[in-house]
Amino acid sequence: MTGTTDLIKLTAAETAAKIASGEVTAVQVTEAHLARIAAVDEKVHAFLHVDREGALAQARAVDDKRARGEKLGPLAGVPLALKDIFTTKGVPTTVGSKLLEGWIPPYDATLTQRLKAADVIILGKTNMDEFAMGSSTENSAYGPTGNPWDLTRIPGGSGGGSSAALASYQAVLAIGTDTGGSIRQPAAVTGTVGVKPTYGGVSRYGMVAFSSSLDQGGPCARTVLDAALLHEAIAGYDPLDSTSIDAPVPSVVEAARNGNVAGLRVGVVKEFGGEGYQAGVMQRFNESVELLREIGAEIVEISCPSFDLALAAYYLIAPSECSSNLARFDAMRYGLRVGDDGTRSAEDVTALSREAGFGDEVKRRIMLGTYALSSGYYDAYYGSAQKVRTLITRDFEKAFESVDVLISPTTPTTAFPIGERADDPMAMYLADLCTIPSNLAGNAAMSLPCGLAPEDGLPVGLQIIAPAMADDRLYRVGAAVEAAFIARWGHRLLEEAPSL
Ligand code: GLN
């Protein structure tokens, strides 16, 4: 019999194999994770809601299926932490906001449905920056999440709850969403793996909208193979999402099982590095470049000059789309309603509810976006930002003519202390400097651990970027890099994290 501690440390692939072979039951695996949550989440605060009964019911269904001799899918019985931005029928969905406190969605997001169809066990909903706006999870209306490596530091954002759940062994898999980096940056600062699939690769139906042309759901895991298994479970065409890609899903699992960079051309983005980057981050990144060379990749330096404008363009486009998307929270259809005492107009109730329900960062973005879209300013701001977006896409196109993938550090620094950037939006925005271009261009990108920064002993992420619809390349390269690092260290990076 495998002990409880061993059960929480398994990979998803191992967990599913043990359940399929009957060595353990899905209920045992689920109970082990629920016990772990009960033991550590008071300290970490990764979850906003734990669906104990729902998870156990799902686990029993998996065990029943097996008892009946039905074939189990590759992730059957594996516990997962779901970012609280996806609707879950009958289970609260808050998006980290007071505005949706207590809202129980009447339907499942397509992604939620696919997880259930794959017999993945949904443990609960994870903490996040309100409406996915932030890089630290400090913008959650329900309080911050701690980084399991050091609970006084941020776990990244906006999906800090998902990354922290993985790094503290409360879940084997997790789901995030990445509008400007919210899957990759949390992965980088917690020593886990996160992938932003090609835009349109995973359905947005039932994923609360922040910036529709940038938002992308994707997999989070502790290993590259686990991320690939989850990627295949959630990806693929959905007629309910008008921007969903109607084409076969890239063979990411096969790629993850065949990690190899021999003869591959890897471009190092020249614009990402140097001033403003933590020395230890650059050291680990440069070592990753050397490692890639050692295992057979050809390294080329690539310049993408318009990446310097990406942050500015993003902070016009994302707020603009958010100002429009968040207009639906009018206190009439769902969520918080304030001041509805029979004396006030509907407009006043809407205004009072939005005033009370939205946090400062959300309000800042709605104001910024409304201003940028107003007539007279539209061309100067939103129009210019869209032009920059085209330039960035062209830089990528040109780069991918001469290289197969691009690499960079995922973030300029390791996890910063909770509170350090809370009152400084500009400093906060810089955390996504290296991740934003891929959202603007819609291509695919991954972050995986590449070591600990010597000065603070905290994880550093390596970003790999591939052209749209070439998500498999991320996994092929990622798996090769991961295997080479494990061979060098003798274990996974996460094993160096202090135990909670
Ligand atoms: N940190 C970025 C922002 O605040 C990205 C957020 C995200 O990817 N959801 O907008």
From TrEMBL:
InterPro entries per the UniProt record, alphabetical: Amidase, Amidase_CS, Amidase_dom, AS_sf, GatA
GO cellular component, one term: glutamyl-tRNA(Gln) amidotransferase complex
EC number: 6.3.5.7
Domain Amidase intervals: 29-474
Gene3D superfamilies listed in its UniProt record: Amidase signature (AS) domain
Active-site residues, record numbering mapped to chain: 83 (charge relay system), 158 (charge relay system), 182 (acyl-ester intermediate)
An annotated GO BP: translation
Coiled-coil annotated spans: none
Catalytic activity: L-glutamyl-tRNA(Gln) + L-glutamine + ATP + H2O = L-glutaminyl-tRNA(Gln) + L-glutamate + ADP + phosphate + H(+)
Signal peptide from the UniProt entry: none
PANTHER family per UniProt: GLUTAMYL-TRNA(GLN) AMIDOTRANSFERASE SUBUNIT A, TRANSAMIDASE
Assembly and interaction partners: Heterotrimer of A, B and C subunits.
HAMAP family reported in the protein's UniProt record: GatA
Protein name: Glutamyl-tRNA(Gln) amidotransferase subunit A
Organism for this UniProt entry: Streptomyces zagrosensis
Designated gene of the protein: gatA
